[in-house]
Design brief:
By secondary structure, the protein is an alpha/beta fold. It has one domain: Metallo-beta-lactamase, Chain A. The protein is 30% helix and 23% strand. The chain is built from 9 helices and 13 strands. The protein has helices at residues 34-43, 61-64, 67-70, 80-89, 148-154, 168-173, 178-185, 193-206, 225-238; strands at residues 4-9, 16-20, 25-28, 51-55, 76-77, 106-108, 111-117, 126-132, 135-140, 159-163, 212-216, 246-249, 259-260. The strands form 2 sheets. It has a 7-stranded mixed sheet with strand order 6-7-8-9-10-11-12. A 6-stranded mixed sheet has the order 5-4-3-2-1-13, with no helix packed on it. Strand 6 (106-108) and strand 7 (111-117) form a beta hairpin. Helix 8 (193-206) packs parallel to helix 9. The longest helix is centred in the C-terminal third of the chain and has 14 residues, at 193-206. The chain is globular. The termini are close together. The structure holds zinc ion (ZN) (2 copies). The site of one zinc ion has 7 residues, from helix 2.
């Protein structure tokens, strides 16, 4: 039985996804309601008690707004610097997992979890890789630029959820105030479609085994899902790097299919 992944929601209104095997389920972020989480878990024949941990990327509300509530049921794994921010902004989490050296990684059930730093305007923003039975899934969103450490951390994955936040032209001519445009486009903001495509090319140059590339954290105001998909797909095709990789979308308002990593 392989590693599986499903995104329940992806985008600036809320992020939450699940990585799981037959024995272990790990939630990534807590940006949906408890009711919605319970409904989604039920469809997978799981309950909230089957979830072994929630790993947290960073303290922005689209990622942690229901974390304190979820933490009554599920142990929380987050970097100490992120924990401080959550404590200051919200409340303390109920069940905090004790991890000695967070950046060294940890194991939940039969899944090894390895965090990596991302360039974003939070206190200690992270992406994560998950490895089980020789298969690897990585999630990297909320990052302003392509950093080498992120590339190194995710390049040998079998499936990746990558940020494809905005189309630069749409952002520049769009409704956001200038300060917000500057934030999104900045080094600690969000990744554009073209940067996402460039990172995908870098990964495919070294890893022909990338089976699934999922584009997420797509902006409602400054992007169109099909434009993100087309930009990444056509860039990979043009470079002769698309191969067998299936490119799909993780959207805000609906769950994805279950991916076999
Ligand atoms: Zn976000
Ligand atoms: Zn963020």
């Amino acid at each position: 039985m392989s590693l599986k992944f499903i995104s329940f929601a992806s985008g600036s209104s809320g992020n939450c996804s699940l990585v799981f095997t037959e024995n272990t389920a790990i939630l990534i972020d807590a940006g949906i309601t408890l009711r919605r989480l319970q409904d989604e878990l039920k469809k997978l024949n799981l309950t909230i008690n089957d979830v072994g941990g929630i790993v947290v990327t960073h303290e922005h509300s689209d990622h942690v707004k229901n974390l304190c509530l979820f933490s009554k049921y599920i142990p929380v794994y987050c970097h100490p610097y992120t924990h401080i921010e959550i404590f200051n902004k919200y409340n303390d989490v109920d069940k905090l997992a004790n991890v000695e050296d967070y950046m060294e990684g940890f194991t939940i059930g039969d899944i090894d979890v390895k965090p990596f730093e991302t360039p974003h305007d939070a206190n200690y923003p992270l992406g994560y890789s998950f490895v089980s039975q020789g298969r690897k899934f990585s999630l990297a969103t909320d990052m302003g630029v392509i950093e080498n450490n992120v590339f190194e951390a995710i390049k040998d994955s079998n499936a990746i959820l990558l940020e494809s936040n905005h189309d630069v032209k749409m952002l520049k001519s769009g409704p956001y105030p200038q300060w917000l445009k500057n934030r999104v486009i900045g080094k600690r903001g969000h990744l554009s479609n073209t940067d996402c495509a460039r990172l995908a090319c870098m990964i495919k140059e070294q890893n022909s085994d990338l089976k699934e590339l999922i584009l997420g954290h797509i902006s409602k105001e400054n992007n169109i899902p099909m434009l993100a998909l087309e930009t990444v797909k056509s860039t990979l095709s043009k470079e002769g790097l698309l191969g067998d990789t299936i490119i799909s979308l993780a959207l805000q308002g609906e769950s994805t299919r279950v991916y076999n990593v």
